[in-house]
From TrEMBL:
<dbReference type="InterPro" id="IPR009875">
    <property type="entry name" value="PilZ_domain"/>
</dbReference>
<dbReference type="Pfam" id="PF07238">
    <property type="entry name" value="PilZ"/>
</dbReference>
<protein>
    <submittedName>
        <fullName>Type IV pilus assembly PilZ</fullName>
    </submittedName>
</protein>
<dbReference type="GO" id="GO:0035438">
    <property type="term" value="F:cyclic-di-GMP binding"/>
</dbReference>
<feature type="domain" description="PilZ">
    <location>
        <begin position="4"/>
        <end position="102"/>
    </location>
</feature>
């Protein structure tokens, strides 16, 4: 049985995945908590415990800048990646804003479509 330390909020929000500062894939946040998130992506050139960055923006008209979070990979599956915020430097305001946005928006937001090939 899996025990979570914080509640996961389901939702959908497109994002870019960065590895070593370079964009390598697109994906979609499927759920998030104060501790981490799960992203749907077909990108798998990743090792467990590797640090990634994810970049997203809230699609409201007045939201023009992108937000970034760092996380390390704790789970890999055919459907995506489980990422944990623990042990990396992040803006807790951005994490709280993401959870609040997902809670308020239950429809899919596809601003970065998931594709079968990594960005080069």
């Amino acid at each position: 049985m899996e025990h979570r330390l914080s509640k996961r909020i389901p939702g959908k929000l497109g994002l870019l995945v960065y590895k070593r500062g370079l964009p390598v894939a697109t994906g979609q946040i499927r759920d998030a908590s104060k501790r981490g998130l799960f992203i749907a992506t077909d990108y798998n050139d990743i090792q467990l415990n590797q640090i990634l960055e994810v970049e997203f923006r809230f699609p409201e008209r007045d939201e023009k800048h992108f937000r970034r979070l760092k996380a390390h990979v704790v789970r890999k599956s055919d459907n995506g990646l489980g990422l944990d915020f623990d042990g990396v430097e992040n803006d807790h305001f951005t994490i709280s804003a993401l959870i609040r946005w997902l809670h308020e928006h239950h429809r899919a937001q596809d601003y970065f479509p998931v594709s079968n090939s990594a960005m080069h």
